[in-house]
Amino acid sequence: MNILDKIIQAKKQEISDSKSKISLQQLKDSEFFNRKTVSLKESIQSESGIIAEFKRQSPSKGIINDQISPLEVVSAYENFGASGISILTDKEFFGGSFEDILNVRNHISIPILRKDFMIDEYQFYEAKSIGADVILLIAACLSPQIVQEFTQLAHELGLEVLLEIHTEEELKHFNSEIDLVGINNRNLKDFKVDLQHSVNLKNQLPEDVLSVAESGIYNIEDFNYLKEKGFDGFLMGEYFMKNENPGNKFQEFIFNVTI
Fold it and tell me: Is 182 in contact with 165 (CB distance < 8 Å)?
């Protein structure tokens, strides 16, 4: 069983536990459920294009940075020009929580991506209830039909959809309703990074689709290369989070890259 399979297995149990504790109606009655969402599609076209991530840990890297508060980090990201914020909500494998979004939602105005492994409709109501604007659909753990159904549900709730793909086969998961397509430079099954592979996949997408390069962007040269190849957005977390002050590292990065 690879790491993705283990995560999905654990996620199913987590969702089952959540359903037994919090009803759909309780989610709908929450503070943020009727909040008007902010468009990531629009934001990445008008700002830096960087979706800056708050991430404490990962299965491949272990603890990255668990000593700094989400609010301190994401406020700095916004102040220095991030187009959006990505926040991990998976606890078991990434050390995240809903509180990480809830604690910052009223303090920033740019869109927030709930980054998690979305495999059940219930999670979409959760995302809406905690103030997320965008959800991630990972093609590797969903069928094309489920992607389409989940996209429709997300839109009904006012959420945008970032579809993540990594293989040519996963291009079949794309449909015209998808808001953005993220191409993961890192293989979720073995964690190898290949930027050229991502460029090749991007070139097979329709020209009008907004594309986001995800993961494995470790330096300014990587960023500029992907920018030159036509990517619209860039999801980056580890590069900033592995520093003692992620906000300062983000500011330094923005100052030096070609925007």
Answer: yes
Tally of domains within the chain: 1
CA distance 133 to 85: 10
Q: What is the CATH number of the domain that holds 188?
A: 3.20.20.70
Domain range for 86 is: 3-256
Predicted TM-score of the model (pTM)? 0.95
**pLDDT digits (tens), the chain, 259 positions:** 788 899 999 999 999 999 999 999 999 999 999 999 999 999 999 879 999 999 999 888 888 988 899 999 999 999 999 999 999 999 999 999 999 999 999 999 999 999 999 999 999 999 999 999 999 999 999 999 999 999 999 999 999 999 999 999 999 999 999 999 999 987 666 677 788 889 999 999 999 999 999 988 888 999 999 999 999 999 999 999 999 999 999 999 999 886 6
**3-state SS string for the chain:** CCHHHHHHHHHHHHHHHHHHHCCHHHHHCCCCCCCCCCCHHHHHHHCCCEEEEECCEECCCEECCCCCCHHHHHHHHHHCCCCEEEEECCCCCCCCCHHHHHCCHHHCCCCEEEECCCCCCHHHHHHHHCCCCEEEEEHHHCCHHHHHHHHHHHHHCCCEEEEEECCCHHHHHCCCCCCEEEEECECCCCCCECHHHHHHHHCCCCCCCEEEEECCCCCHHHHHHHHHCCCCEEEECHHHHCCCCHHHHHHHHHHHCCC
CA atoms within 13 A on the CB side of 195: 16
CA distance 73 to 200: 33
